[in-house]
Inverse folding.
């Protein structure tokens, strides 16, 4: 649906829709109708009620000629603009009062759209459609008994056998989350049925499994605020709403102004709706944990923030999330829409906005949108409200200090990683000014403790957004132990004191040759004289894998190309054949990565981009990168954040590779199917057979490639999980033997990174669950490690 603003004749000063010129073309009229519908409810000199009444009149006049277009637009805004839900339900109510048949057709169209959304796993949009239908009860479009009947069908899903809990959760959420809008109306007309539904809801929530919750929590403790599972929190809010006699004080209800008109309208019964059955292709939304930053004590001077179990809190947060989802690509529009949220004088809106932004940023397994968007959005909000929002951001920075103080029990390292990315980006927009002395207590702690580790990673990220000397200048000298190392290349053959090193003379020859633009053959000729330390090994592969040859070549080449990323990329491209030959074996690939680390250990970003480039150019493969990350050579950096950025980037590349080949296969099958369809109307079967041959052969080749890629993908995860299990088991045995506490900072980091692998790549891992369960996560595994797998299984159980 287009959201364009039309400047020719659609911007009336009084906000009223005005008459069209009779000479307008149908396409112009349709565009104008779309613009008027999409913009209703925005700021205007006229009241919302008069705008709605005027728009209803315009649409009623156009129904004879443009009914299908109007139906399509209204169904689309119901799905995509949920923050203006009550505005559009009122509009539909006014149209239904004027044209009963149109109201019936709209209800049927909404049910069709709801069924289609559920069929294609668009569950978030389906929730918006269910709420829209429920609010039509308030507008006298849908009869309350038929809405109750639909909710009874939703709740009955919890009685189904052999279905995943997340299916029941979604239907329960769709029911409960509609009650703030329609609960009062339904209770007045169907109190006995509603009591029964709520009783069944309570029974379901009590027997629900919540093994997954620890994996999704931001905090490990209930400080500074409890982290509740989303359905439990919503149930507490609905219970309080019922206790308050369904009196909700925040939802904008423009239909109340038209009560005398709407109450005279005839109502429609919903068509029978049966939830579609569960299938193997059904992908339900993952459970969530509700994130809290503020409570009613945080803004003592302004309006009081609704309590965490107040339904107003739920409504406000839902609407703000919807606004961000609708406008996140345009930060200026998004900021303006957030600040113009209705009723902003009755709530501490700035606090709500900041909390919702960070709830999305800290959402596990990953934020809904790219991380940089949230920083730019906060900055844009500050620009639009220079007098008030910076105070909230100041509080936010104080909150950063609180987070720092709580780091030892803060919880998820993945969330800390995201917070560091945001915080460093935020500092880069404010000249990296910060009261670093407030964090000086970390200087006396072990570097693996949460606080010094946090500061070190923040400074590392800041350097990526600036340069080394700038960071050294802004940080007190006492922080030098945590400051990033000077990101220079470490070339061991560059110092004459190392003349005794094996390969030193060859490195000098290589340097001269590369500077003189030597060819690949000339490089091979120079390298052939490098002795092989493995030549006496019994392993046959030792003769082909020459670690010294790799070391001399990679060290020298990276040193000569150290000036920039571009120089390094050009070097990899020019000597790609040499790399492929030297890294032919698995040991060769692993050793190339070891040498890259030795050369650039003081420049994590360079390591990350070089590894990325080597995977793309197939110098190394994904399994080699995984084995390298878990190797003893990287043990010192194992908990550094850049290591996990490399690993997740590697997994994503493998996943994209499989998807790309699979798409090629599906496209080729589709081409063959189209060819067969044409053959049905073609008399020359022989020419069709000739055309089919190449495509069928291509399909066979692609099927083999897909199977091979999926095998590599499964092997990559097997390597990663196996190495995790080995490291964690060794740690647990060592602690048990030495009588040491298991829960060290290293253990906490490692176990949470394992959780992150499961969460961020859950859709792929689900495909190989049986293999992983049979080979790795068996009942004999230590319960500390097995618990992570069980939590993951519970996410879609």
């Amino acid at each position: 649906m287009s959201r364009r603003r039309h400047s020719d004749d659609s911007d009336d000063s009084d906000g009223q829709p005005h008459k069209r010129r009779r000479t307008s073309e149908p396409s112009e009229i349709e565009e104008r109708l779309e613009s008027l519908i999409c913009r209703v409810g925005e700021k205007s000199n006229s009241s919302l009620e008069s705008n709605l009444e005027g728009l209803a009149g315009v649409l009623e006049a156009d129904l004879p000629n443009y009914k299908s277009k109007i139906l399509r637009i209204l169904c689309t805004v119901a799905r995509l603009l949920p923050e203006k839900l009550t505005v559009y339900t009122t509009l539909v109510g006014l149209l239904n009062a004027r044209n009963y048949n149109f109201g019936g057709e709209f209800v049927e169209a909404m049910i069709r759209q709801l069924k289609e959304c559920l069929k294609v796993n668009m569950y978030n949009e389906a929730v918006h459609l269910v709420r829209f239908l429920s609010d039509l009860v308030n507008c006298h479009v849908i009869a309350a008994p038929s809405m109750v009947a639909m909710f009874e069908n939703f709740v009955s899903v919890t009685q189904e056998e052999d279905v995943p809990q997340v299916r029941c959760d979604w239907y329960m959420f769709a029911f409960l989350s509609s009650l703030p809008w329609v609960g009062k109306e339904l209770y007045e007309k169907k109190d006995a049925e509603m009591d029964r539904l709520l009783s069944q809801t309570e029974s379901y929530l009590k027997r629900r499994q919540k093994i997954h919750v620890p994996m999704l929590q931001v905090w490990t403790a209930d400080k500074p605020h409890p982290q509740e599972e989303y359905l439990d929190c919503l149930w507490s809010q609905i219970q309080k709403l019922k206790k308050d006699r369904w009196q909700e004080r925040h939802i904008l209800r423009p239909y109340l102004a038209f009560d005398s008109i709407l109450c005279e309208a005839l109502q429609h019964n919903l068509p029978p709706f049966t939830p579609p059955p569960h299938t193997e292709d059904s992908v339900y939304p993952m459970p969530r944990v509700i994130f809290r930053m503020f409570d009613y004590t945080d803004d003592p001077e302004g309006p009081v923030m609704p309590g965490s179990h107040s339904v107003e809190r739920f409504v406000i947060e839902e609407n703000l999330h919807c606004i961000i989802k609708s406008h996140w690509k345009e930060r200026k529009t998004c900021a303006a829409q957030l600040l113009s949220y209705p009723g902003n004088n009755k709530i501490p809106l700035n606090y709500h906005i900041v909390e919702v932004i960070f709830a999305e940023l800290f959402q596990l397994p990953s934020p809904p949108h790219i991380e940089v968007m949230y920083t730019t959005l906060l900055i844009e909000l500050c620009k639009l409200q220079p007098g008030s929002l910076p105070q909230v951001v100041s509080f936010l920075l104080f909150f950063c200090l609180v987070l720092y103080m709580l780091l030892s029990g803060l919880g998820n390292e993945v969330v800390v990683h995201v917070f560091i990315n945001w915080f460093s980006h935020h500092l880069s927009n404010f000249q990296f000014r910060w009261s670093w002395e407030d964090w000086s207590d970390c200087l006396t702690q072990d570097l693996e403790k949460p606080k010094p580790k946090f500061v070190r990673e923040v400074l590392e990220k800041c350097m990526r957004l600036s340069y080394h000397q700038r960071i050294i200048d802004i940080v007190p000298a006492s922080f030098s132990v945590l400051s990033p190392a000077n990101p220079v290349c470490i070339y061991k053959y560059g110092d004459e004191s190392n003349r005794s090193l094996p390969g030193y003379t060859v490195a000098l020859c290589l340097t001269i040759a590369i500077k003189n633009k030597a060819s690949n053959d000339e490089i091979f000729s120079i390298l052939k004289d490098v002795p092989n330390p493995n030549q006496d090994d019994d392993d046959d592969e030792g003769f082909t894998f020459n670690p010294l040859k790799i070391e001399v070549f990679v060290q020298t080449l990276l040193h000569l190309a150290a000036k920039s990323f571009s120089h390094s990329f050009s070097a990899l491209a020019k000597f790609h054949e040499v790399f492929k030959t030297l890294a032919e074996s698995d040991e060769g690939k692993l050793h190339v990565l070891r040498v890259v680390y030795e050369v650039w250990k003081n420049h994590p970003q360079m390591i990350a981009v070089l590894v990325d480039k080597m995977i793309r150019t197939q110098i190394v493969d994904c399994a080699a990168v995984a084995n390298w990350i878990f190797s003893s050579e990287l043990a010192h950096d194992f908990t550094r954040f850049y290591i996990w950025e490399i690993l997740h980037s590697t997994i994503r590349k493998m996943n994209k590779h499989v998807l790309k080949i699979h798409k090629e296969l599906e496209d080729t099958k589709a081409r063959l199917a189209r060819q067969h369809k044409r053959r049905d109307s073609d008399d020359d079967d022989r020419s069709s057979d000739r055309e089919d041959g190449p495509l069928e052969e291509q399909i066979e080749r692609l099927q083999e490639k897909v199977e091979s890629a999926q095998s590599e993908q499964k092997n990559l995860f097997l390597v990663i999980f196996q190495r995790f299990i080995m490291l964690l088991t060794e740690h647990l045995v060592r602690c048990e033997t030495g009588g040491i506490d298991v829960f060290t900072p290293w253990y906490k980091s490692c176990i949470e990174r394992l959780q992150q692998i499961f969460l961020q790549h859950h859709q792929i891992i689900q495909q190989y669950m049986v293999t992983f369960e049979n080979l790795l996560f068996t009942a004999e595994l230590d319960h500390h490690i097995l618990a992570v797998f069980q939590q993951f299984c519970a996410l879609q159980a």
User: Anything to note?
Assistant: The first strand starts at residue 228 and ends at 229. The longest helix spans residues 685-738. The two ends are 36 Å apart (CA to CA). Residues 1-23, 537-543 have pLDDT under 50 and may be disordered.
